[in-house]
Amino acid sequence: MSAEAIEAGRTALGIELGSTRIKACIVDAADPARVLAVGSHAWENRFEERTWTYALDDAWAGVQAAFAELRADVLARHGVELRTLGAIGVSGMMHGYLAFDEAGELLAPFRTWRNTSTGRAAAELTEAFGVNIPLRWSIAHLHQAILDDEPHVPRVRSITTLAGYVHRALTGRAVLGVGDASGMFPIDATGGDYDPELVARYDELVGGRLPVASVAELLPTVLRAGEPAGELTPEGALLLDPSGALQPGVPLCAPEGDAGTGMVATNAVAPRTGNVSAGTSIFAMVVLERPLERVHAELDLVATPAGDPVAMVHCNNGASELAAWAHVFARFAEAAGAPIDDDAVFDALFREALAGEADAGGLLAYNHVAGEPIAGLDEGRPLVVRTPESRLTLANLMRAHLYGAFGTLALGMRVLDEEGVRLDRMFAHGGMFRTAGVAQRFLAGALRAPVSVGETASEGGAWGIAVLAAFARAAAGGDARSLSAYLDEAVFADAAQSTVEPDPDDVAGFAAYLERYRAGLAVEAAAVAAL
Question: Where does the signal peptide begin and end (predicted)?
Fold first, then answer.
C-alpha cells in the first residue's frame, strides 16, 4: 500500500533547514501521521567577521544530500523509486536577513537569527511602531543596514528568509507563510498581510533611504496555511534532485519558519495551546486568546501558520552547550576504554540528572554560546559557576546544564504569567526530549505547567512542514476544515503522548535556581566584557 501511494504521488514531502541538520521527510498524504521515509544532512553555522552565517551553497548541498538519502530510504523500505510527489513544503530557521538584487544575486552574507548586531535599529523600530521588534527580525537587519550606510542597500530589490529563498528557487514565486512572514515585518490583526499602518510609518521613517518606493515592495507575498504557493519548476526539480528522476509540476505549500512547523508538529495552533521547541535555539510559542496589555522586550508577537496571534519567547541559545559537555564525557569514556555512542551518552547523563538536588546543588550553568537579548547580552560566554558551598557532583552538574538550557526561556515565560496568559496544553519537541521523562520533567518544573511529548517529537519540523504540505493538498481537493480541525481529526486523533505534571520539589528547586541564575547574569556580562 505504501509503495503504491509513493508511485502514485499520494505523498507529501517536508524539507526543513534547521540550525544543525537539514531534514527531509515523506508522509502518506491520506494519513500524514504515517512517516514513509526520511533523510538528513548535518551542517553548521559559521562565525565570520563577527557574523553568524551559513553559505547558501552549503544549503543546497545539504538539501540535495538529504533528498538523496530520502530516495535511498524509500527504495530500501518500499522497493520503489521516488519519481513524483503529491505536495512539497519547505521550512527553515526563522528571521534573519537574505537580501537580493534585481537579478536574484545575494548582496551580503546570510545573517541568521543568531546575530545581535541590530540593537540600534530594533530600538528605533520598537519606538516607532509601538510593538516589540526583536534584534533578529528581518526588518531590524534591513534598517540596521540602512543606518550603517552599507553599500549593498541601494541595490536591494527583495529580502526573504531561508525558507522563502529555497521556495523561490524551487517555484519561482516570492511568497512566505504568515508565520514566517510575521518574523520579517509585523502582521496586521487579521493575520492576512503586513500591517499597512506600520508599512506607512516605516516608509516615512526612512524618508527615501529605501531603494524602492515602499518597504512592502521588498517583502514576499503573505500566504496562510492551505493556500496554493506555486509548483515545482523543471529547474527546481533538478535543484532538489540533480539525478533528474524527480518530475516537476508538484504543488508546494507556503514556506514556513521552524517555529510554525514546531507548532504544527505538536498540534499547538489553537488559542490557549503552546509548545516549546528545543534545539540549537530554544523557544516557546503560546497562541493568544486576547492581545497583550503592554509591549514586552522579552516577547515577539508573531502568528501561527493559519494567521492567529502568538506570543513567542525566543532564546538564541538552546542545547548546544549541553551537547558540548556530552561530547566531553563521550571522549572520556572512549579514553577510558569503554566507548559508547552519542545516544547512550545523552541517556546516561540525563538519567544521572534525575539524582541531582532539586536546585542543582547551588551550581549554575549558562548556555550562552551567542548573545542573548532576553538576558541583556550582546555576546555569549558559556560558563559553569559555583560557590565554595555548592555541591559539585555529576548529577548536580547535569541538572544545572538542563536547567540552564531552560533558564532564559523561563525568564520570558514569567512575563506571560504576569500578563495573565493561560494555557490548556503545553507540548515539547526536539532531540532533548528523546530520553523519556527527564528534560520533559524539568521543563514542567520550570514552566510550572504540565508538559506533553508526542511520539512524533524526534521528527520535528520536517514532519511539521510535510503535514502543512498535506493540508494544502487536501484544501486544493476541497477539504474545507481549518488547520486546527485538520490536525485534531486527520493527524493527531490517534497520536500517543505522555504528559508530565510539575513536581512540587522541581518547581521549588528551579525557582531557587532561577533566582540565582538571574543574579548571576552579572557574571555573564563581566565575562563578555573581560574575555
Answer: none
Q: Is 71 helix (H, G, I), strand (E, B) or coil?
A: helix
What pLDDT is stored for residue 116 in this prediction? Answer: 84
Between CA 355 and CA 372 the distance in angstroms is 30
For 135-193, the pLDDT digits (tens) are 999 999 999 999 999 999 999 999 999 999 999 999 999 999 999 999 999 999 888 89
Segments of the chain with pLDDT less than 50: 457
What is the rounded distance in angstroms from the CA atom of residue 12 to the CA atom of residue 247? 14
Task: Quote the pLDDT of residue 459.
Answer: 59
Hey, how many other C-beta atoms are within 10 angstroms of the C-beta on 485? 12
* Residue 398: strand pairing partners: none
Contact present, 163 and 226 (Cβ < 8 Å): no
Q: Which CATH class is domain 320-456+501-530?
A: alpha beta
Rg (CA), the chain: 22
Q: Is the dihedral of CA 101, 303, 95, 374 positive or negative?
A: positive
CA distance 531 to 527: 6
Contacts of residue 3, defined as CB under 8 A and 6 or more positions apart, other chains included, come to 78, 79, 80
- SS3 per-residue string spanning 231-272: ECCHHHHHHHCCCCCCCCCCEECCCEEHHHHHHHHCCCCCCC
C-alpha cell at 350: 540525563
CA distances from residue 51 to 47, 54, 137, 143, 503 in whole angstroms, order as listed: 5, 10, 15, 17, 41
What pLDDT score does 281 carry? 84
How crowded is residue 190: how many other Cβ atoms within 10 Å of its Cβ? 9
Residues of the chain with CATH 3.30.420.40: 2-266, 320-456+501-530
pLDDT at 92: 96
Q: What 3-state DSSP class applies to 403?
A: helix
E-strand ranges in 125-171 read 158-160
Set of cell numbers at residue 252:
508546494
Q: Are 139 and 202 in contact (CB under 8 A)?
A: yes
d(CA 175, CA 168): 7
Domain 2-266: give its CATH architecture.
2-Layer Sandwich (3.30)
Partners of 531 in the β-ladder:
none
Sign of CA dihedral 464, 465, 467, 471: positive
φ/ψ (deg, to 5) at 230: 110, 175
The answer to whether 429 touches 262, Cβ cutoff 8 Å, is yes
